Amino acid sequence: MDEIIKQFIGEQNCASICCVDESRQPYCFSCFYAFNAEVGLLYFKSSSNSRHAALMKINPFVAGTILPDKLNKMSIKGVQLKAIVLDSKQQPVIRTLGIYLKKYPMALAMPGEIWVLQINHIKMTDNTLGFGKKIVWDRTQDLPELISG
Questions:
Q1: DSSP assignment, residue 109?
Q2: Looking at CB atoms within 10 Å, which of 84, 86, 88, 135 has the fewest?
């Protein structure tokens, strides 16, 4: 994964994620996340009985965006991503779940479960590198695939 993308995602805290409901209509939610740059995973905590949790259990394919925590209109940066929800009981995932709790230790006191998104595609806009500059990354380029999909 491009170092600029890794740095940007690692510096932010909140993502907007979109899943699809039973009528194939989009349903979006926002979440605080932690990022594992080594394997391209995003972690977030949510109630297992939330609307988006129910939808992700039916269809694990999601899309999302990450914008800077502090938006600078003169130097636009942002990420669009495609991902798949992983089973948090898979061995490669279990070994890395502590990343979320390290970033948000107060999450231990909150009910809910940690969800894991395997990022498979990213398009980043970074106008600090030139107006309209895009950096595209795809999992098939350089990270091992954790699951089929």
A1: G
A2: 88
Beta-sheet pairing, 113-126 with 134-138: antiparallel
Q: Which tens digits make up the pLDDT trace of 40-93?
A: 999 999 998 999 999 999 999 999 999 998 877 777 899 999 999 998 787 767
Sign of the four-CA dihedral 48, 49, 52, 56: positive
Is 65 inside any structural domain? yes
Encoded tokens for 73: 């209109």
- Give the tokens for residue 96: 């890395």
Enclosing domain of residue 90:
3-140
**Does a structural domain hold residue 146?**
no
Interstrand relation of 77-86 and 26-36 (parallel, antiparallel or unpaired):
unpaired
pLDDT in tens, 57-66: 999 999 999 9
Q: Is residue 145 part of a domain?
A: no
CATH number of the domain enclosing 93: 2.30.110.10
**Distance from chain centroid for Cα 57:** 16
Angle at 89 between CA 8 and CA 112, to 5 degrees: 70
pLDDT tens for 91-115 read: 767 777 789 999 999 988 988 889 9
**Would you give the DSSP letter of residue 84?**
E
Q: What is the total count of domains within the chain?
A: 1
